[in-house]
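Repro:
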Amino acid sequence: MLKLALLAGLVGFCAAAAKLEEVFAWKEVSYAWPNDEARNEAVKNGEYIRENNLPLGLERWKDKLFVTVPRWKSGVASSLNYVPLSPANKTASLIPYPDWKANTIPKGEEKLEDNAIVSTFRVSADSCDRLWVIDTGVADILGGYKIIAPPAIVIFDLTTDKLIRRYNLKPEDQKADASFFANIIVDVIPGKCDEAYAYIPDLGGYGLVVYSYAENDSWRIKHNYFHFDPIQGDMTIGGVDIQWTDGIFGLALGPADETGDRTVYFHALASTTEFSVNSSVLKNKTIALDSLSYDLYKIEGNKGEKSQTSASVFDEKANVLLFTQLVKDGVACWNANKTLNAQNVGMVAEDHENLIFTNDIKVDSERNLWILSDKMPAFLYKKLNPEEINYRIYKVAVDEAIRGTPCEA
């Protein structure tokens, strides 16, 4: 019986792993340089140090898959990039977006261009064919921590690759010596592009910044649910012990009701609890900043032991929240029609070799789930082996991913 149980478990694991299609796999990332001379000059000047370029965030728009490379360390050649999805090339070089100049740090008295991207962690494409980027404005984060520009929302027209708007976050949107903005989620109803809102979590300052596109204005919200759980900050990922204090990090939007409002699901990274609030609370500046709105936030439940999560995304058709599982090397799901607890959470992918630190996930317009894993703890605190595949991007259809889990309707 024991042998049969072990065999069944092995078959189940293989079946789950077979669901994922490996689209990209890199030992170290390269870039589509204008020519060899430009690459050699960048290497010589320390502007490109191959091992310091770690892909972190992703987003799909048509035939482009955007891949961000934050400037954790010196020598990051370009922070906002894309790779074409056809022709298929698993080791494709990253193409800077919108171009090389926008991703080059100014030297001396050079002016930062309005379309410049200093360092971004995550981006979001909306139904209006716009790419929303949250630029931290900081280079060499783990080294000299060079503040090049204030944190900003940068919006591009994906059909023309032209800048639509750059909005610098206001000083009052930030908490001195604490704020760090590494995610952006766009709330827009198709056909009402000018009424869009963006939600930008502050993982270090434990706040949430809301930006109104129509008003070109922003406001900062505070709530106890935005803080990390001190009991859940210790994690072992890929053999690396880490102690993190990251607060509100991942956000996901449920389906819109007849008024255009949605449930906004959110969590701290160093936590296993999921929370929610109706978007009408966030979008109304008067209500959002009123202390009486405190009770309008809801505890959805606990995802279970060792279920710390970075990114999350909601699939409206299945009514399922998908979220990364950092300690478990995978991605999990929860059907929002059910109570959120460990029993109702299903693993849609788990691989202790290839899914170490599932940093970002997205669901595209065709309902494909995209997963990026990058071994980030080892990159930050140890050293990655350049002879091994360190960075992977997978995809799988949402319906296939949740099949056989508690997330099926």
